[in-house]
Amino acid sequence: MRLVATSRLPDGACLARDVEHGSEGTVPLLRAGVTLSGRYRQLLLDAGIHAVYVDDELGEGIEVPLAVRHTTRVEAGRALSKAFADVRRTAHEPDALPDKTIYALESVVAKIVDELGSAENAAIALGDLRAADAFTFQHSIDVTVVGLLIGRRLFREHGYVDYRGDRAWKRSEEHLTQLGLGLILHDIGKLAVPDEILHKPGPLDEREWIVMKRHPEIGVDMLAGSPIGALATCVVRSHHERWNGSGYPRGTVATAIPQLARIAAVADVFDAITSERPYASAAPQHVGVDAILDGRGTLYEPEVVDIFAKVVVPYPPGNEIVLTDGRTGTVSSVPPDHPSLPVVRLATDADGQPCEPFELSLVMRPELAPTRREAVSTA
To answer: Which of 5, 7, 76, 377 lies in disulfide reach of 108, CB 3.0 to 4.6 Å?
Structure first.
């Protein structure tokens, strides 16, 4: 299968994956296997679906692994919906989230970790291919997936930072669970942000920014008395802090930012860039990767960015790629040791004329790999 821009979908193309739209558990907008027509193309565009996977000759044999199963996403959405409802209902009580709500979230986190483990070394497509309103809690779930991808690899290679500031490995699974719990709840404080600010289709003014910047601390207050643990709470409070001190709510600098929050910062920004937002369309995965790499050592911790670059590839299988000589192709596979140098299936020459498809490894021709592009806004 391969990813094709909706505006360029040819009539007669076969949809390779369901197109989700609407609330969790509802019927997909279109089912895999449907033959696409001009009417369906317009339906997708009207729903804000800018690209879909299709099965055709050029994409034959290309496997595009999922980060987590659709059923796991639905379960995560339900568990998170319950948590948000509990916070709304008991916001002024000392035990905001009951144990059973936390256990449900921990169970989902464990499932995500398990599914990510089964996709070890796979080049996963993490871009948002759903409409902006496909899942109410999609951003929180996607940030959890990306953050756990980073955390698993980081803890395995370097260990976690314990309370003394030393590296440790023995309780890595516990730290991974705390990371996942903090990630899935990281935006709970936005319940207190008015919708007209949260969904404003343009830049926030100074007053609106002041309100928005309160959401991490408000989230911590909402979770006060809940059995989520100090490490998860740090993720909620500090996921908008930046390595150079330019973040909020406290302007914390470098290693004074909790390690799990440093991971969350990278995951949060990457997903924001590659997802549909009220004020910006979803960018391709390579744009999100470039933005994180451009922030290495300034906005984000270098160690976290280096691990991110190992687990999140700029051009996953099935994605279109334009080589430096002008040829356009589809990524057919990604070597684990060279995540930025995929194998490309080419079907056009430099002038855009069709040619007999063949595969080219950019490991052998690195000069043809796309150059880094200017980072996009992460506000």
So the answer is: 76
